[in-house]
Amino acid sequence: MVRRLVDRRVSFTHLCTVFLWLVTCFNGRNAVKIVKVVVPEIIQYGVQDAVILDCDYTYGNNTSGLMVKWFFKNNARPVYQWIVPQKPQDMGILRGRVDLTYRASNDPLKMHRALRIVKPNTDISGDYTCVVSTFMEEDSRTKQMTVFVPETNFRLIQNKTDDDTVNVICAAEGAFPAPNLTLATPERRLDGVAHNLKLVNGRYSAVASVTLNDADLPSPAEFICTLRITQANYAVRKESIYYPGPISTTPEMPTAADMQLAAAVGSKGTNIYTALSIFLLPAFIPALL
């Protein structure tokens, strides 16, 4: 009696295993599966005319309802859609910015799987999700792309408002994503640095400033400002030499670049002292870096 129960259990287990194997084989023959998504992590603005985001996949015997969609960030509506065998469509932020004639493959079930975005700008930086589906199956993958812009103006400024202190100001504009500014000497990173950041027309202006006592500085003193954009693995630096002492009595007129940078950081909500310091800098020191 016990042996019969054991045999029945073994037979039932065997049947379940065979059934699951058959189901797996059936689904595998009809499944759609993404095998590779190629999205460049970083591209530099203005360097290339277009960027390609590719989404390669395999498909089974049943391709009814085959569709490729691309989503931008967390938006519920796609920015690109191709329903086989119809023509592809661009939508949302990518409307009018995708080359709809581009073919990533000669396979009629894969040819319009990719995005060829023309003249990429910073507003298309973010996560891209490719979704490939049929009436039976669906698969998706997500990757991030950043359109990087180096700074257009970068200055390290010494501004004296009295004989005993110096304002060290580092300012940059025109960068994307948001740059990080650090002020330091060759020996240490400076403490008490104030930071301001502003986004205008898709580009960031950033200011880092600190006031130091001449008595705490060697003569001469060296200041270093480093601008970093971590996402792009990008870093540049400026260096300046400062000689503690009285305010210079030989003023210079502000340059056009000084006025432009002051305007960029001196809007409502930005430290007005910082903006004026940048604007009036040439009146206080004989040269700019």
From TrEMBL:
Gene3D superfamilies: Immunoglobulins. Residues 40-146 form the Ig-like domain. PANTHER family: BEAT PROTEIN (PTHR21261), GH04238P-RELATED (PTHR21261:SF2). This is Uncharacterized protein LOC114239744. It comes from Bombyx mandarina (Wild silk moth).
